[in-house]
Amino acid sequence: MTAGRARRSPIVLLVGPDGTGKSTIVDGIAAELPIERAHWRPGVVRPLSNDGAVTEPHAEPPRSWPVGLIKLGLVAADFVVAHLGPWRRPRRTVLLERGWWDQWVDPRRYRLREGHRPVIAAIGRLLPRADVLVLLAGDPAVIAARKQEIPANEVATQLDRWREVASVAARRVVEIDTTTTTPAQAVERALDAATPETGWRAVPMVPHRYRLLVEAGRDSRAAAGVYRPRSRSARWTQPVRALALRFGLGRSASVPSFDRSALRVALPGADPTLAVLEADARHRDDASGRLIIGCSNAGELVAVAKCAPRSDGALAREIHACTAVSSGRSFRMPVVLHATSPDAPVQTLVTRAEQDTGRRLDLDDVAAICLELQDRPEPVVHGDLAPWNLLVPEGGPPVLVDWEGWRTAHEPLADLSHYLVQTGALLGWWSPAEVAELLCADAGPGASVCAAVDGGAPADEARRALDAAGGRGSGDEDRFRSEVVVQIDRRAGSGGASIS
To answer: What are the CA-CA distances from residue 267 to residues 295, 315, 348 (Å)?
Structure first.
């Protein structure tokens, strides 16, 4: 399966004896996931009406052998037309209750004979398999007592038959015990199963410290927009990545492990295509398992989600920042669509995707952001102010994202010095001497920020910020930062010329 195009609607079978809670499960799935619902057969050749909706499934006698064969032929034609027609076009997930094989499991319900079962099986093997079969099961006595339509031994027989044929009817089978789980838990498990696994591929030409995985679907290219390269080398390889996404190139990858339930809460009614950006474990200080997930729909990136275990405190800090820090005149905070509580075992933050033109901000605009963060009753340090964390739209102020390293502190030049070092060391925008001048010169942005927030001498504030950040970045960053400190000391010894 390629990442470029979905070939047909995913089909999910929901099966089980009467009393297992199929209606409750279907209603719960329909409330969270866009589906096309069908009851036991498609209803394309002939509308269903009340076909199959019975309260005493075994009350009427079976039809004659020839009439039963005729009915099987008509039902088979209904399935064939559906698979060739509406179910072939990429649409919403098809949720089919019971399905073709329910006739094999419980022929008496359909007024068929036991002798019809070999014919049902032969035709069923010719029909396309569903993507997922969700079998609702449990203690037969408890199930039988719920509706009292069929006895416990019949429930047990039907469950055994479903387990026998499940792998023939679908590519993947999920069994849910509805007698030991609450309705909410059963619905949650069914929701996870109702999102069939699709092909995932690793996008080539991504820096080795990351992995970018895309889910098969028409929107995979939009979802991959969660990866925003800013370095020169990453931009040079962008055409290769675009071709890989367009034609579904790249090696197959295992499905990343994460819970989609938070995405369903944040994006009700949507079934987005996903892309996952994760740091390679060989290049992480810990095995936190943090993921960044891009969610796309209708060709647009609509949301960005971050997931991490509770032991990873960085994401919990970012969730706190999104509620504690307010937007200003020079920047906006991300719009939060969903955030977990601090005690949740898996921390999840879902924010609205923002437009990013990639335009380079003027340094005066960056300095204005630094000033506005510090000029508060409780001064704020973003901690990772860099171009890749500033999303610049066509109109309005930039959106400042990635607040994992934020803190409250009066450190006038912490963010500005970090921005200058990042853009100088990694993007080549400035030399160490130019950074020292921008931070310390009388008419430079560093001196303006210090003066506005009652900071110390710009040179002292710059040294303090650079020393505090030492050893946290790559070797190139640390070397560049050290050279900036040398240049600041030289300026102090020579009297420090001002920017003209």
So the answer is: 9, 20, 14
d(CA 181, CA 186): 6
Dist. CA 403–CA 125, nearest whole Å: 54
Distance CA 240, CA 263 (A): 30
- Name the token pair of 218: 């028409």
pTM reported for the whole predicted model: 0.64
Distances (CA, A) of 8 to 82, 217, 230: 11, 10, 36
| Residue 23, pLDDT score | 87
User: Which candidate, 263, 348, 274, 18, places its Cα nearest to that of 152?
Assistant: 18
Q: In what order do the strands lie in the sheet with 346-352?
A: 200-202, 210-215, 273-279, 291-297, 300-309, 346-352, 336-339
Please tell me the predicted confidence (pLDDT) of residue 9: 67
Cα maximum dimension of the chain? 107
Best CA proximity match to 221, nearest among 209, 203, 195, 198 = 203
- Cβ distance 225 to 272 under 8 Å? no
d(CA 79, CA 96): 11
**How long a stretch of residues is the chain?**
500
Give the residue among 129, 146, 132 at the shortest CA–CA distance from 176: 132
| 494 CA to centre of own chain | 54
- Environment class of 110 (CB within 10 Å of its CB; exposed 0-12, middle 13-18, buried 19+): buried
Mean pLDDT by 10 residues, the chain (500 residues): 46 91 87 80 76 67 92 91 78 85 94 94 91 91 88 94 92 88 85 69 81 80 82 73 76 71 78 80 49 89 90 89 95 95 87 91 97 96 95 94 95 97 93 96 95 94 92 81 95 62
